[in-house]
Amino acid sequence: MGWKGTVRSLQASARRAERNAHRRQRELEKRQKEFDKMEALEQAAYEVEVYENHIDLLLSMHKECAEPVQWKKILSTPEPRQPLKAGSLEQAAHHASATYRPNFWARLFKLERRQREALLVRIGVAAAEDERLFQAELDEWKTAHDDWAEERDIALRILDGDRQAKLDAIEAFESLEEISHLGSSIQMIVHEGGVLEAKLAIHGSHVIPSEIKSLLKSGKLSTKAMPAGRFNELHQDYVCSCALRVGRELLAILPDDLVIVTAMDNVLNSSTGHMEDQPILSVAFSRIAVDGLNLEAIDPSDAMKNFVHNMNFKKGTGFSAVCSLDSERFAVKV
Fold first, then answer.
1. Same domain as 52, residue 114
2. Is residue 186 domain-shared with residue 263, that is, in the same domain?
3. φ and ψ at 270, to 5 degrees?
4. Same structural domain for residues 323 and 219?
5. What is the pLDDT of residues 33-81, one digit of tens each?
6. Which of 91-105, 147-161, 165-179, 296-310 has the highest mean pLDDT?
7. Number of domains in the chain
């Protein structure tokens, strides 16, 4: 298995440990097929469950992450040994021919010559089968050796801080797909000082619901416009949860001690009076600080206090544009 396969296997382990909100989402998707058959009150309860699950998904993005890639362990993996041609089947056939002794019936019916010829034919058949098995082993070894060499090369480059190697590893990693499915896209940049920055395009207005769904005492569905303050709070928690998720995933892929995540969204540019994509959160996630979080219990917005960050948020007006963190501030001095 090549290093990309190694990464995907780690992703599989992350999926097995998926958060409760994800499992609940799958259960609700299965029930969607039965929606038309439900009674009115059942439909109302189902819609509220779907709504609450969507909110839960948005605010728990940070709770999932792939297992860390052990690049040093990959580097220490021994080189696959090239197989040797054993020829055991041919040897056995030669032995059978050399030790052949005609029995009573073979002598009686004059079968000795025919049986010796058959044994000689079997030597050729056995040699051909030995060659086929050897070529199959050789092909398997070549594939394994190519994968080992590729793993070793990427591990060496990653541990050496190679900028392109970092981008190659991240590109192969698919655990950030959930964020893109929710309407956010990610751009990776490795700055001159070697610090990796992920620019996360958040489309809050498309992801955060504009309505609140709940059940009345009668069991009927209630749908109300979401107050601006509640929308802004959900937006903040979603942005911070996404940023923390991206930071965790990058620290799992790379051996770096720190990565920067900058979230962008459509906010007012006070100098032009127009709505433009601008940074609304820029945070430097250090490995030590991330590892110290109790991710099941944190409020994602409050958790930003543990990191160097720029964020300007007010409940009444939401996010305002901020400056991205300067990567040079965190560059490792050689």
1. no
2. yes
3. -65, -20
4. yes
5. 666 666 778 888 888 999 999 999 899 999 988 889 999 999 999 999 9
6. 296-310
7. 2
By C-alpha distance, which of 298, 220, 255, 307 is closest to 46? 220
Please tell me the distance from the alpha carbon of residue 299 to that of residue 312, in angstroms, as a whole number.
Answer: 17
pTM assigned to the model: 0.80
User: Is residue 334, in this structure, part of any structural domain at all?
Assistant: no
Q: Considering 172, 205, 232, which residue would you say is the last residue of a domain?
A: 172
Report how far residue 127's alpha carbon sits from residue 249's, in angstroms, rounded to the nearest whole number. 52
